[in-house]
Amino acid sequence: MNVTSKPTVKEAKTLTLAGGLAVLNAAIAEAERIGQPMCISVVDTGGNLLAFGRMDGSRALSVISTRNKAVSAALDGAPTGGVHADVELQVTLAQGSKWTNLVGGIPIRVDGFVLGAVAAGSGTGTQDLAVARAGAAAIEGAEMFLDFTPMGAEDSGIIRGPH
């Protein structure tokens, strides 16, 4: 097949700043509702930071991890925490420690297009995921990934080392 006969442009969509702020505000509202201070990152399709909030009382290290969760979810097009714990370290190292398998990052996907991603951190994986989902719900038609099951070591029941 001749390369020139293939399309040279594809349709793409991404979150705007207004969309990022709507996601951030919805996630903050959920974190307040459950009483768990969070760090929340919202990125566009390319993993570029659009909006960020660090609630009073959240963990300082979550500033970095939520950004990595959001970038990972946006670029993978899948929630973070879905890679089996036996390979998550190898994948993280292969990506220069920019990728994470911590639970709590989800892509914002509407009609098959990944528009960006949202991630929350400072709670349990379950809390982080709930806050991220609440943020994504601010975008009409966003997929909630309700069938997602974490496979990483966090919140999976996997026990390492002596009991």
UniProtKB/TrEMBL annotation:
InterPro entries: GlcG_carb_metab_protein (IPR052517), PduO/GlcC-like (IPR005624), PduO/GlcC-like_sf (IPR038084)
UniProt protein name: Heme-binding protein
Record organism: Antrihabitans stalactiti
PANTHER family, per database record: PROTEIN GLCG (PTHR34309:SF1), SLR1406 PROTEIN (PTHR34309)
